[in-house]
Amino acid sequence: MAVQTTPQQASEVPEGGFSGAALRADFPMYEVPTRSGKRLVFLDAAASAPKPRVVIDAIAETYAHHYANVHRGIYELSEDATSRFEGARQAVARFINAPSEREVVFVRNATEAINLVAYSWGRTNVGEGDRVVTTQLEHHANIVPWQQLCAEVGATLEYVAITDDGRLDMDDLRAKLEPREGRPPRLLAVAGVSNALGTINPVREIVRMAHDAGALALVDAAQSAPHMPVDVADIGCDFLAISGHKMLGPSGIGALWGRRELLEAMPPFMTGGSMIIRVSLEGAEWNSVPHKFEAGTPAIAEAIGWGAAIGYLENLGMERVREHERYLFTHAWEALSAIPGLRLLGPADPEIHAGVISMVMDEIHPHDVATIFDAEGVAVRAGHHCAQPVMLRYDIPATTRASFYVYNDLDDVEALAGAVRSARRVFGVGG
Ligand SMILES: Cc1ncc(COP(=O)(O)O)c(C=O)c1O
Questions:
Q1: Which residues line ligand 1 (CB under 6 A)?
Q2: Residue 63: how many CB atoms within 10 A of its CB?
Q3: Is the pLDDT confidence value at 250 over 80?
Q4: Quick one: how far is CA 189 from the chain centroid?
Q5: Which pLDDT belongs to residue 182?
Q6: In this predicted structure, what is the pLDDT of residue 14?
Q7: If you average pLDDT over every residue of the chain, what do you get?
Q8: Distance between CA atoms of 150 and 131, rounded to whole angstroms?
Q9: How far is residue 420 CA from its own chain's centroid?
Q10: Distance of alpha carbon 98 from alpha carbon 95, whole angstroms
Q11: Residue 1 has pLDDT above 70, yes or no
């Protein structure tokens, strides 16, 4: 796929980057008219990203010509489907620089990946009196499974505090990692990027701190892997969770990456077909990893579609994707900061803020803001973003969140700022 830049768009393209406007042609979603009749300005990738045609085609093509169950048949179609499905696993492994594709477990989404660790690793490695540490800026997916685990085994869950500008409080992290009665926490679970604040956490440093303290480290990369290079070898973590649907792939497919020796030692999460090598009336013997964790028929076409999404992103280059979003963020932050009565959450520094901007408008509820935005063709998310502890921290019920991706450009930034001004006019709180 060639990324074309026309001369008119040149001013919208960061040096060495690509044109978001040109990429929109790859996304059939943009062909659907909005009910307002306005141009669609899609700013909700953080919830779920649109799908480029290559992904839709890969899914359709799988169902049309390459579909059979995987790992089971010894006929041509099944072998074909299996090799495409396993090719997708290799693509995921390559994308996160996993040492081996056997460390990539297909699951439904990041939520399931984290639950897998909490149930399988957690129930065998965390016990009474132990501690698990997470942070206050996590998505519920990286909080509730640990709450459940700790409640069940009699462990304690602790949360690293966040600063007024939405960064993790590193002194508090250090304190939380200190041993208590000679015991370090068992695990530190942290997001690469906060979906509610946009903060990019220094995961490499955090993982090193966790390891130095004697804890394992899980990184929730649901919001980082789609938008910047994510390299498990470089981060040094023990587990990493990702969702396909947030990185241009289909919903219903995600992955847990885990260090091989940890996965080998963990008991299965779910049991049944495919995850065994032998079953008798007395019991069963587990398959090798990753299959031990993949009970039942997997999401075959979805995995293959995700492989196509990864190919699309690799073609753009993840460094360039990050650069593109940093560019849009910088312009958006500047434009929005100039609007009176608008509070922006998260750090102002573009080096540690991803392409996600959460805002609160004095006197106007985020749902009303989003409704007015919709009338302008601007699609954003309003709510607590499954991060209620973040809302509690800043004493707000919800935010309006705009999130950028590869198909956005400076016109979208301008439309966002224009929609904020419209909302303020409609509610009579200034222009
Ligand atoms: C940071 C983060 N973690 C985890 C999740 C859960 O992802 P999924 O719903 O795909 O399981 C999300 C989804 O918004 C997220 O933003």
A1: 109-111, 139, 141-142, 191, 195, 220, 222-223, 243, 245, 386
A2: 11
A3: yes
A4: 14
A5: 94
A6: 65
A7: 95
A8: 8
A9: 26
A10: 8
A11: no
**8 A C-beta contact, residue 244 and residue 302:** yes
Does the structure show a pLDDT above 50 at 201?
Answer: yes
Query: Per the structure block, which two tokens stand in for 247?
Result: 């990185």
DSSP bridge partners of 183: 180
The residue behind tokens 């439309």 is: 415
Structure tokens at 48: 């779920």
Look at residue 337 in the predicted model and tell me its pLDDT: 97
What mean pLDDT is predicted for residues 313-319?
97
DSSP letter string, 170-196: HHHHHHHHS-BTTB--SEEEEESB-TT
350-397 pLDDT, tens digit per residue, is 999 999 999 999 888 988 888 999 999 999 999 999 999 999 999 999
Atom of ligand 1 nearest to the CA of 109: 11
Q: H-helix or E-strand containing 117?
A: none
Question: Is residue 24 within 8 Å of residue 40, measured between CB atoms?
Answer: no
pLDDT of residue 2: 36
What's residue 113's pLDDT?
Answer: 98
Question: Helix 410-426 to helix 318-337 angle, to the nearest 10 degrees?
Answer: 30
Of 170, 386, 426, 429, which one is the catalytic site residue?
386
pTM (2 decimals)?
0.96
* Peptide bond preceding 290 in cis form (omega within 30 of 0): yes
Specify whether the CB–CB gap between 245 and 225 falls below 8 A: no
Please, which residues have CB within 8 angstroms of residue 317's CB and are 6 or more apart in sequence? none
User: Which pLDDT score is estimated for 429?
Assistant: 81
E-assigned strand segments in 52-169: 104-107, 131-135, 156-160
What is the full DSSP assignment across 257-301?
Answer: EE-HHHHHHSPPSS-SSSSEEEE-SS-EEEPPTTGGG--SS--HH
Question: Which atom, in ligand 1's list, is nearest to the CA of 47?
Answer: 14
Start-to-end C-alpha separation, the chain: 42
If you ran DSSP here, which 8-state letter would residue 334 be given?
H
What's the mean pLDDT in 277-284? 97
Q: CA 431 to CA 429: how far, in whole Å?
A: 7
Length of the chain, please? Answer: 431
Assess whether 386 carries a catalytic annotation.
yes
